[in-house]
Task: inverse folding
């Protein structure tokens, strides 16, 4: 099996590894914030704990997957390359949390898509400051403008 990066270009391989490391670090930081937003209040700490446990399981399995390099050099690269892509595709199915209140109960979490975004719908219309309300204000503004 041929690798996408030629062996005589170690800088390209290192650059790709650094880009991958950056992506992993950024996603690891974001996932904790998103996890806290998606779980309802009553199970939030448990949900974050279970999510953290699975993240640590990935850290435990990483050296074992890397040992597959002895069998086939491409196997760890394929596993470590397809896993984040699969995770990114699955993350697209998660609900949007921007401008939405955090779920308080399990029922709120189950009905996440049914609920509307109350912050956007309950906004009061802003006052129109472009035109003065009384004619005396208009006259005063005209006097000041001339």
Result:
């Amino acid at each position: 099996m041929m690798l996408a990066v030629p062996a005589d270009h170690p800088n390209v391989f290192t650059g790709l590894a650094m880009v991958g490391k950056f992506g992993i670090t950024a996603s690891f930081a974001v996932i904790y914030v998103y996890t806290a937003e998606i779980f309802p209040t009553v199970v939030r700490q448990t949900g974050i704990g279970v999510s953290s446990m699975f993240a640590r399981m990935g850290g435990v399995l990483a050296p074992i997957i890397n040992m597959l390099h002895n069998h086939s050099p491409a196997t760890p690269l394929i596993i470590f390359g397809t896993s984040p892509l699969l995770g990114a595709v699955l993350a697209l199915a998660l609900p949007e949390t921007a401008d939405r209140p955090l779920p308080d109960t399990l029922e709120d979490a189950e009905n996440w898509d049914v609920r509307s975004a109350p912050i956007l719908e309950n906004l009061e219309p802003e006052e129109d400051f472009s035109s003065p309300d009384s004619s005396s204000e208009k006259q005063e503004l005209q006097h000041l403008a001339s």
Observations:
- The mean pLDDT is 78.
- The helical segments are 10-38, 44-66, 74-91, 106-110, 118-121, 135-145.
- DSSP finds six helices and no strands in the chain.
